[in-house]
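Complex record, three chains
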Amino acid sequence: MDITTHYFDTVVIGSGLAGCRAAIESVNYGTVAVLSKLYPTRSHSTAAQGGIGAALGNEEEDNPEWHTYDTVKGSDFLGDQDAIEIMCYDAIPTIIELEHMGVPFSRTPEGKIAQRRFGGHTRDFGAAPVRRACYSADRTGHAVLFALYEQCQLKGVKFFQEFQVLDIVIENNKVQGVIALNIKNGSIHVFEAKAVIVASGGYGKLFKVTSNAYATTGECLSILFRQGIPLEDMEFFQFHPTGLYGLGILITEGARGEGGVLINGKGERFMERYAPTIKDLAPRDMVSRAILTEIREGRGINGKEYVYLDLRHIDKKILQERLPEITTFCKIYMGIDPSESPIPVVPTAHYAMGGIPTDNDGRVLRDVDGSVVEGLYAAGECACVSVHGANRLGCNSLLDTVVFGRRAGKAVGSVLKSIERGKVKKERIKINIDCIEMIRNNKGKETVASIRKKLQSSMMDKCSVFRTEEGLKELLEEIKILKERYKELTISDKSQIFNTELLEAVELGHMLTLSEVIALSALQRTESRGAHYREDYPERDDENWLKHTFAFLTEKDIEFKYKPVRITRFKLEERKY
Amino acid sequence: MERFYTFKIKRFLPDKTPLIRWDEFRIKLNSMERVLDGLIKIKESIDGTLTFRKSCAHGVCGSCAMKINGKNRLACQTLVKDLTELVEIEPLPSLPVIKDLVVDMTLFFEKNDRVLPYLINDEPPPERERLQLPKEQERILESITCVMCGSCTTSCPIFWADKNYLGPSALLKAYRFLFDSRDRATEQRLEAITGEHGLWRCHSVFNCIEVCPKEIDITKHILKLKRFAVKKGFTGG
Amino acid sequence: MRYRWSTGSLTWLIHRITGVILTFYLIAHIYVLSHLKDPQSYNEIMALMKNPAVKISELILLAVVLKHAFAGLRITLFELGVSTKYQKSITYLMASLVALLWSIGAFYFIKEAL
């Protein structure tokens, strides 16, 4: 087997916003390699539409303290307030920095960065919606990702495109390196490094209907989890209220920020009942629940399983200038013009609040006591700082990626001198090669597609917006069966070159692991908070559950520990909008 | 409404003989489904070895560009109901094929690197954002929507004949920075794009406009670049 | 390699082909001119020009010249800043002009021949 070894100071896994931002920072201190299973600009960050939040106050009065409060309240008080404060205050310099790097933000008439309203972002601690989301039409992610990738090129970051990470090697509580497969020719590459920053993104593909890309399967989380690293708050998975009906393609919250409203089958603007103050701009968990409640109670459009997002009253020129992308999506995929007909929407799996636990500088935690793994960092959607708590506010995810990507990069820089470069042992490489060969040559009767389809639909049915004990237990049973079936997997493509079937099989194994963690985490949290809604426990229970869940893989099974929420400034209150 | 379609796909399996062959698959698709859905269905239920790139599946990442019925497009943005019953699919033309519909895009991305594809401004940055008036930004609005799928460059007959030609995508990238009011590397960049294989090789064939999934009028941008280069005295190459 | 033709690429191809034809024509033309040394050879060549095959070739030549000239004009218009939005309509307009001018030319040709 062809094995190549590379030496870098820092290896970044993932070339989305968090990965590129971390690379830009850490390349100031040493050599950096970025591994990506796609071409860098294909990363799913590019699909982010609506905006990136910062209290710049360009359009109206705003301040980071309000932003902090909104984020804390949006997180249903599960977010760590010190981390949230860092993010909201860091937001301003970070956005200005992005602008200097060349991001083509949309502009106000005076030439400043333009801002728009977004769900859950308010002025004066909840008084009224505020313009806080900086945007570049409805292609903000695309604009920011390109600028960051371009800066990486300028600064000499080395990209390894179409490399699938097989293993992140941790030994003696220190990260040693990364083992990856070059998809183009099937060769194995070992990256020995001083530090590894995991920025591998989310795992929306666990669900049947999702706004996420095919690449978002979350294998890096599972790779770490299988080595004993905990996963935090995995029960919290956000469903975006407005996905195109039948496809799940995202229709940005910015559409409602620009004045769009949701209407049910009776023609009512139903959000008025659920969030009287900020109505359609309520946080996503509430809007998603509201839409599904309307549908369950028979008030979908013509009794069908969707509601309308109505943009017809918005000036055509504004649609064209600020929401061109979603206008095209509607035309291409639904054959409708949003300025003339309402858009059929349903909630779609969108964002993982949970992930690899980190401290405020991106260091990966290995336990609830705050101890860390030397040299291992995580940032972006795959990480859980936690700034999003139980529910993320719109336009805070892009902010999270750049703020904490930058912090992780800086933190790496400060320790590079004092840590040794890791070593990846031959046996470890061999285990990975054997594992790949086993999947390649396994002779069973199950296909990747059949197992994956079943998993995705079960997750969607039993672990999405509404959850019950009964459903989750059934789901866990099903996952158990699917894991057995996975052992009987066979693939028809045996080749070394661009074997996507093999990669999908590897990804599926990790998806099964993650699903189990999510379902178990959801089962043990017997309350409803943010995006985690248990029909059998519909109330928030601060007395017992104001704490982060840490799931560990132990010899026997998956076990849970808990970490208290850091509350610094804002006291608990009922979450009403 | 469901209908049967025949996907006729040009296969390239590097470790099989014959190297190149045409396979036909018959599949049922509904009117909302796209060519990408069809390919996935084939991979999942008929032939697992069929290989193609995919990611976002709604036309923003640019992974799944391929030649469909003789024209480059994104498979995820081409609805089958708009095609004939027989759908002919090939990889992007004029790039080395790795496997089936997957081409080696290295050559394409290298072109991009030649135009200094990053904002260059050595002036000390102000404390806040650099101001840019909406009308200054309007000049680059179309060019920033490029997803680098490669459809345009590989549809260009000049590129077919001259593999060194920068091509529409890289020229568009050069435009994006040359016309950004915040960029200061005008001369450097004009120098980089006006060589023998650069700007002047564009013969306004308009093939790039026909295929751009983001409907960017690329030729318009290249013509503007030409006028700009002449004005700045960069007529060589 | 097969690739679907569009208005732009077809016009481009015709522009090239007509250009090549005109190059060869120019060589032939200079060759003929260089033989017009005395009245006798002048009369011989003029007699040859009356041949119907030559007449038909001249009709084709007219079409080639017109097509090439207008294709060049079209590209020049774009380079001078005419919007590429009208790319296709300008192509059709140019083609109609070529057809019109050619018909007029052909009319006089045939009239003279008869």
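Note: The helical segments of chain B are 35-45, 106-114, 134-141, 157-161, 167-178, 186-193, 207-211, 218-231.
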